[in-house]
Amino acid sequence: MSKNPGLTVLAGPTAVGKGTVSTYIRDNYPEVWLSVSATTRAARPGEQDGVHYFFKTAEEFDDLVAAGELLEWAVVHGCNRYGTLRSTVNAAIAEGKSVLLEIDLQGARQVKEAVPDANFVFLAPPSWDEMVRRLVGRGTETPEEQQRRLETAKLELAAEPEFDHTVINDDVRRAADELVSLMGLTPHGR
Fold this sequence. Notes:
- The protein is of the alpha/beta class.
- It has one domain (7-182): P-loop containing nucleotide triphosphate hydrolases (Rossmann fold), CATH 3.40.50.300.
- The protein has helices at 18-28, 58-66, 86-94, 105-114, 128-138, 143-157, 172-182; strands spanning 7-11, 32-34, 37-39, 53-55, 70-76, 80-85, 98-102, 119-124, 165-168.
- The strands form two sheets. The protein has a five-stranded parallel sheet, with helices on both faces.
- It is globular, with a radius of gyration of 16 Å.
């Protein structure tokens, strides 16, 4: 089965740097349309509504689910919900844009059910120790939440064979360029 060049799904374990790679692509590859997820979690410092996420109340998120307006959604780390608005993704694909969904593993599995010909890319850490260092180093979670995320990450790493491609996030620019290449676009500077 040939892959849909219009839709690429990027997933990987917590703290692997999905957001960092996606931000690099947003800032350096305007030809890529980066889907903005809806979430019930609170904004982190510097995050803007509609740019990094659509921040929703639990009630607003429930309404989106009930109306079938999410391509995928999941409860992540046992507390917050994240989802992808179906309408924005479909509109971008219809306009011929290269769409990148940066989502968690549960969401990637739902998209695989809904759009099996999408291009699925697993972002992997260079090592387990580096992933732990990144999670602890960002300082945005309590020690209890860090431990819960690391337990989740062990399960998420085991899902790598479910994906079409793996990109190692050892250097943000290199990983972003490889991902863009897998999307069928030409990386800058090549």
